[in-house]
Automatic annotation (TrEMBL):
This is Filamin/ABP280 repeat protein. GO terms for biological process: actin cytoskeleton organization. The keyword Repeat applies. Transmembrane segments: none annotated. PANTHER family: CALPONIN-HOMOLOGY (CH) DOMAIN-CONTAINING PROTEIN, JITTERBUG, ISOFORM N. GO terms for molecular function: actin filament binding. Filamin repeats lie at residues 1-58, 60-153, 145-200. It holds the Pfam family Filamin. It comes from the Eukaryota. Keywords: Repeat. Belongs to the filamin family.
């Protein structure tokens, strides 16, 4: 018999490469170049196999963050010390951690994310400073990042090596570049009162 496969799209059809791996075992490969809904037709000797045509949906997003929608219409204007609220929908992006940082003209503004536990969040921003002119990039950009990755945190310096003498002042560096949003906590365990840790 002969196996053929074709992927039909609303804008364009996609060629399907069929490769025989063994007796009655085939591998089919295709690469859609545009997002949308497709129908995958698989035929054996000119007749559809069971379940054919199959529905295939191709998404153009390259990362889960691109699937998150933000209602930016409410972020265009605000009043000092009055909360600005907007809705962020992460349901299409799947599981992950959402974080937001709100920068004013001079310093960070208060912002809080409220998790509705259904994949949607309310972002509340309270501006405490103003400027008569729009800053570059206004309306404001909300940066949505991927979940933190602790494996990218680097720790180095003499303070993490063996053989530090009693009363010897030592230090070490914790570098979180590339690890994503998160809070750094440092704990040194040992005899009670033996360590005094200061973070800078």
């Amino acid at each position: 018999g002969r196996l053929t496969a074709t992927l039909f799209g609303t804008k364009a059809d996609v060629p399907v490469r069929v490769q025989q791996l063994g007796h009655n075992v085939y591998k089919a490969t295709y690469t859609p170049l545009t997002g949308g809904n497709y129908e995958l037709h698989i035929l054996w000797n000119g007749s559809h196999v069971k379940g054919s045509p199959f529905k295939v949906s191709a998404d153009t997003s390259s990362s889960p963050a691109e699937l998150i929608s933000v209602d930016s219409s409410s972020l265009k204007i605000g009043i000092i010390n009055d909360d600005i609220k907007t809705v962020i929908d992460t349901r299409r992006a799947g599981p992950g951690q959402l974080s937001a940082q709100c920068m004013g003209p001079v310093k960070l503004a208060y912002c809080e994310l409220y998790d509705h536990r259904d994949g949607t969040y309310t972002l509340s921003v309270r501006p405490t400073e103003y400027n008569d002119q729009h800053v570059r990039g206004s309306p404001f950009l909300i940066h949505v990042s991927l979940p933190p990755d602790p494996s990218k945190v680097r720790v180095y310096g003499p303070g993490i090596e063996h053989g530090i003498l009693n009363m010897f002042k030592s230090n070490f560096v914790v570098e979180t570049r590339g690890a994503g949003a998160g809070q750094l906590t440092v704990r040194v365990r040992g005899p009670k009162g033996a360590f005094n840790v200061e973070m800078q």
